[in-house]
UniProtKB/TrEMBL annotation:
InterPro entries: MlaC/ttg2D, Tgt2/MlaC_sf. It comes from the Bacteria. Keywords: Signal. Residues 1-24 form the signal peptide. The keyword Signal applies. This is ABC transporter substrate-binding protein. Gene3D superfamilies: Tgt2/MlaC.
C-alpha cells in the first residue's frame, strides 16, 4: 500500500471518528434519564430494604452501583473547588485527589440518606427545556406525606446525560459544598493538600443550615 493510499485511508477514518463524536448526543430525554436512575435505585432499595438499617456497607454498595456511574464528578469538583479549581490555584494532581475524595464522600452522604429509606415514592414534575446543554429535571420525593423537591442539573456528555449538581428543597448542594470547602481551607491556614485530605462534604448540614 503506497503512502498516498495510507494517508487517504487514515484521513477518512479520522474524519469518520470525529464526525461521530461531534454529532453524538444522549439517546434519552432528560426526564427519561432521571426516571431510569431513580427507578433503578429505588428498585434496589426496596429489594434490600430489610438489610439496610444496620448495614452501611450494603447501602454504599447500592449507591455506588446505581448512582455513582451517573454523576459527573469532574463538573461537580469544579463547582465545589470554586476558585481553587483553576491552574493558578491548584495542580492537576490536587484536583484529581480532590475529585477522588469528593466522590467517595458523596457516596457516604447519599448512603446515609438512603439508609433511612422506608418505601418512599416520588413524582416527576413537568419538564421545561430552557437549557439544552444543562437541563434541570425535578422530582418530588414523598416521605410521610411530605414532598421533598430534588432538582438534578444535567450535563450533556455526548453519549449520555450525567448529573453535575443537585438542588434539595431549594438548596444548591454544589454551592453549599463550595462554602464548606472554603471554610476547610481557611481552618487549615490555606494549606490546600491538607484541606483536600480533610474535606468532608455534609449534605445534611447544608440543608439544615438553610432551614
Amino acid at each position: 500500500m503506497n503512502t498516498l493510499v495510507k494517508q487517504t485511508l487514515t484521513a477518512s477514518i479520522l474524519s469518520t471518528m470525529l464526525a461521530g463524536t461531534a454529532f453524538a448526543a444522549p439517546s434519552e430525554t432528560p426526564p427519561a434519564f432521571i426516571k431510569k436512575v431513580a427507578d433503578g435505585l429505588i428498585t434496589r432499595l426496596k429489594a434490600d430494604q430489610s438489610k439496610l438499617q444496620n448495614n452501611p456497607a450494603a447501602v454504599k454498595a447500592i449507591v455506588r452501583q446505581n448512582l455513582d456511574p451517573y454523576i459527573d464528578s469532574q463538573a461537580f469538583t469544579r463547582i465545589v473547588m470554586g476558585t481553587y479549581a483553576t491552574n493558578q490555584n491548584s495542580t492537576a494532581a490536587q484536583r484529581a485527589q480532590f475529585e477522588k475524595n469528593f466522590r467517595e464522600t458523596l457516596i457516604e452522604n447519599y448512603g446515609s440518606a438512603f439508609a433511612k429509606y422506608s418505601n418512599q415514592s416520588y413524582t416527576m414534575r413537568p419538564f421545561k427545556s430552557t437549557n439544552p446543554t444543562n437541563p434541570v429535571v425535578t422530582i418530588d420525593f414523598i416521605n410521610n406525606g411530605e414532598k421533598i423537591p430534588v432538582s438534578f442539573q444535567l450535563a450533556d456528555k455526548g453519549s449520555q446525560w450525567k448529573i453535575r449538581n443537585i438542588n434539595v428543597s431549594g438548596i444548591d448542594l454544589g454551592l453549599q459544598f463550595r462554602n464548606q470547602f472554603a471554610a476547610t481551607v481557611k481552618r487549615n491556614g490555606g494549606n490546600l493538600d491538607k484541606s483536600i485530605a480533610n474535606f468532608k462534604p455534609d449534605a445534611e448540614a447544608a440543608v439544615e443550615k438553610k432551614k
